[in-house]
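Continuing the series of single-chain predictions for the mutant panel. This is the parent chain; the variants come on the following pages.
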Amino acid sequence: MKARIALMLAAFWWGSLTTIGFLVVPMLFARLGNPAVAGNFAGELFAAQTWIALGCGLVLLVHARAGAGASIDGPARTTISLTVIALLLALLQQYAVAPHILARENLRLWHGLGSGMYLGQWVCAGILLWRMGRRTA
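Parent structure:
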């Protein structure tokens, strides 16, 4: 039962990253017409996504650690490492990169860096989901 809940959290995390980053935000910029307004909405969505990442990631860390028992073996270590990397990317994007984007400082650099971090988080969450799905099947 706990493994299925963890799998659902991993799916929620990856799905929310996919929906916000690859569907909703591009639609905002395409439909609103004003990049400043779309950017403000996108920033709020990415901030909410950071909270989703923190919630899902922390629960997945607790689940991985509890399932590992006394020693953390290869699969548990990989799960923990991917989760920590994804969480760090989410936090860095939100608290180190986003303020520069909102201040419109060197927008090309900071936006590229933030997009790369978001993509990295998406890849980590996707690998987690794939690995967890394989184990519960």
